[in-house]
Structure formats: C-alpha cells, structure tokens
Write a structure and sequence with these properties.
The chain is an alpha/beta fold. Helix content is 39%, strand content 17%. It has ten helices and eight strands. The longest helix is centred in the last third of the chain and has 17 residues.
Length: 297
C-alpha cells in the first residue's frame, strides 16, 4: 500500500479537468472521453461489436476460450456521458482476471433520454440474455452511474418478476439522487472529482423533473433489497459518494442479503481504473474477480 501513489493520483486529478465542468453536454462528453482514453486497456482482451436488445454493445473476451458465464457491464458517466469504450479499462481487466466474457452495453443517455431510459435499456439487455442463459450464469457489474444501474436494474428485474442475476459488482456506485449522504459534505474537500453542486448539476439532466425520492433513483434511501443476490460494493474513502455504498450495504444487511462493503482509504472515485499507477487498483480488481468467480462457480 503506497501513500506516495495515492497522493500522486490525487494531485494529478486536481491538476487535470475531469469533464464535469458546467459546459454543454457535448463538451462534457468530449472531455470525459478524452480523460478516460488515458487509462490503459489490456491488449490481450478481444473486443467485438455486438448488439443486445437493439442497443450497441461491445463483447469483450479473454485471449483463451472463455470460462462459462457472462458479465453484463454498465459504464459510468453520470448517466449522461460515456460509452462502453470509456469503461473498457475496467471491463477488460475484469475479463482477463476472471476468464469470463463481458457484454458492455451502450445504454441511452440523458438529457436526450432521461430517467428511466437507461434502466429500461439495461433491463431489456438482461431479458435478452435470459433467453439463452441461466440467471445463475450472469453477474451485473458497473462503475459510478453504471454501478448504480447494476443495482436499479436488479430492482427493476425483480419487480418485473424476472429471476435476479447471480451477483452484483458496483465500483463507486451512484445510489442516491436526493444527495442526502453525509459524505456529500464531509468528503467534499477530499474528493478531487466531484462536489455536491457538480453532482446536482449533472443529476438534473438525468432526472428531468422526476421526483428523486423513489427506489429507482435513490436505492440507498428507498429500496427494499429483499431477494437480491450477493453484492460487492467497492468505494474510496475520499469520495462524496462514499455514503451511497455505506447506506446500501446497511439496507442489504437489513434485507438479509449477502453484502461486502470494500472501502479503500485515501483513493478517489473509481480508483480501480488506475492500474498503471496505483497498487490498490489491481488489488481491488483481484477481489472483484474473486467475487465474480465465486458467484459463477
């Protein structure tokens, strides 16, 4: 565990624009894509364009024959930015560490397609997978907004009478559009990515006037997680979103759901992407891979 590495990552993030400034959506998307393109994608992972439930998707496979199972991956980007390609470093690393293929979904983005369009796309993709795959062979995974979608898509699937997937992996998930977590304030100086103000600004694009006080928009506050599969939540201690994971873990515990809350000190939002500069990133991905392999065993 290197304190020097953690400090270097924090200093880097504070120097570089993160793509969440109060700009047009087009400029924010371009800035976010440019930022995420700096993270290395392992060349061994094979990427193939695909389609799932009518949406563009990227099939990511290990170099050898994949082990049985599927990771359905949901990318981050505040529900209005990003694509499977911006999350490819995370997706490819999970594939190589597990030996299991991933399908990374290009769900519709706000503000052109606000809530609940993204959840509808993720649920449709899961329905499509269930036509040829047992739910016990599918794990949801995602980062940031995509981590939130891994939870809300499971809620939507359960409430629609579908079987739930074998597990959920959420990296720094966004789970509360009411922004009621105490770390929205207490971690604002420590977080080099977000402030409560910036999260409210991008969140409004997704909400489009919807009441955030509902399970699909604030599962950390309002969701009943009864019947959920095992959940792995990984989050950095320097995040305004820290309490989203803490409170969801409490709700999972109260619903008698297996949950692992994995908090790493001194690291930023979705720190798992920093595999080339932060030892903790690779170690966290190893733990996530172990969780996935145990769920799909």
């Amino acid at each position: 565990m290197s304190q020097e590495q953690r400090r270097a990552v924090d200093e880097l993030l504070r120097r570089e624009p993160q793509g969440f400034e109060p700009l047009s959506v087009e400029k924010m998307r371009a800035g976010f894509a440019a930022m995420m393109s700096q993270f290395p994608v392992p060349a061994e992972a094979r990427q193939t364009p695909a389609t799932l439930a009518g949406r563009p998707t990227v099939l990511v496979e290990p170099p050898a024959t994949p082990r049985p199972g599927t990771i359905l991956y949901f990318h981050g980007g505040s529900f209005s930015l990003g694509s499977p390609h911006t999350a490819m470093s995370l997706t490819a690393n999970l594939v190589l560490r597990t030996g299991i293929r991933a399908l990374s979904l290009d769900y519709r983005l706000a503000p052109e397609h606000p809530f609940p369009a993204g959840i509808e796309d993720c649920l449709a993709a899961y329905r499509s997978l269930l036509e040829d795959n047992d739910p016990s062979s599918i794990v949801f995974a995602g980062d940031s907004a995509g981590g939130g979608l891994s939870v809300t898509t499971t809620l939507a699937a359960r409430d629609a009478g579908l079987p739930v997937p074998a597990g959920i992996v959420a990296f720094s998930p966004g789970l509360d559009h009411t922004y009621a977590g105490s770390t929205m304030t207490t971690k604002e100086e420590a977080d080099p990515f977000f402030t409560r103000e910036s999260m409210v600004r991008t969140g409004e694009l997704y909400l489009a006037g919807a009441d955030p006080a509902q399970p699909l928009l604030a599962p950390a506050v309002h969701a009943d997680l009864t019947g959920f599969p095992p959940i792995l939540l990984q989050v950095g201690a320097n995040e305004v979103l820290l309490d989203d994971s803490v409170r969801l873990a409490e709700r999972a515990r109260d619903a008698d759901v297996d949950v692992t809350l994995d908090v790493t000190a001194g690291v930023p939002h979705v720190f798992q992407t920093f595999t080339d500069t932060l030892d903790e990133a690779g170690e966290a991905l190893d733990r996530a891979a172990l969780f996935i392999n145990q769920r799909l065993r």
